[in-house]
């Protein structure tokens, strides 16, 4: 199914993500990596500031409600409801991001902004396996 | 004050994911579908986010310390190793299969799609597993260190 190319909305949305990342660094001295923030909700806690992580997650959860209130309609999304696929994907995303030390936000946005070679390589790898997975799923196996 | 900053940062981040369309897994999967219904929007998201973050970080790092805490907590890891590569590779497979990465998945929770309600607990289990692995490794290191001392 096709989705429309949205250069303006996507650039503005990206800039908001950037503003949030700058806020966390400027005020809290921390990277805006979502998998890292979620990881801080788990023990061991020393120096991890789980309260700060939980507050950030609360903000993330309020966002779609705020969006609905302003726009008048809820955010429209298409999510697969295949039980096996979504469970396996969740495990892979969670394990992979935590094991590889970051996800799209930590490596892809903050890592790039810090010119970290490590993050550059991680981003190239997950983009590569992401492209390959969608190719296999949509063009070899079929939806 | 710190709670306010954190909630606000989370809210702005979430709105960014929604406005940019990245909270729609179909749009992300279409970005990853070079051979099919390719949607390049994610490139604009990355550009917008990286440019603002790059410039804002200059400002943040020009200060001796962050505004609300004693020091910057930057990632200590410098090594490019198998752990980084394996983690990133597995992450990419899950990202392609679902169109979800951690931020969009969490921010999608209140929208209550069935797939999100399956994905998020599984993702938290995945993160928890790694934390458990790290903790076990740390405690076994502590045990072997105390054994050497004895």
General description of the model:
The complex is a heterodimer of chains A (143) and B (150). With 143 residues, chain A is mostly helical. The longest helix of chain A is centred in the last third of the chain and has 25 residues, at 117-141. Chain A has one domain. Chain A is built from six helices and no strands. In chain A, helix 5 (104-113) packs across helix 6 (117-141). The mean pLDDT of chain A is 95. In chain B, helix 2 packs across helix 4 (82-98) and helix 5 crosses helix 6. Chain B is mainly alpha-helical and 150 residues long. Chain B is globular, with a radius of gyration of 19 Å. Chain B has six helices and no strands. The N and C termini of chain B lie far apart (47 Å). Classes of the chains: A mainly alpha (143), B mainly alpha (150). Chains A and B meet through helix 1, helix 2, helix 3, helix 4 and helix 5 of A and helix 1, helix 2, helix 3, helix 4 and helix 5 of B.
Structure in a nutshell:
The complex is a heterodimer of chains A (143) and B (150). With 143 residues, chain A is mainly α. Chain A has six helices and no strands.
Topology:
The complex is a heterodimer of chains A (143) and B (150).
Chain A: H1 7-28, H2 34-39, H3 50-71, H4 83-99, H5 104-113, H6 117-141
Chain B: H1 2-20, H2 25-32, H3 41-61, H4 82-98, H5 102-108, H6 114-149
Q: What does the main sheet of chain B amount to?
A: none
Separation of the first and last Cα atoms of chain A = 11 Å
Let me know the largest β-sheet of chain A.
none
- Write down the domain tally of chain A: 1
> Could you name the ranges of chain A where pLDDT drops below 50 across 5 or more consecutive residues?
none
CA-to-CA gap between the ends of chain B?
47 Å
Order of helices and strands of chain A: HHHHHH
Low-confidence blocks of residues of chain B: none
Number of helices of chain A: 6
Number of domain modules of chain B:
1
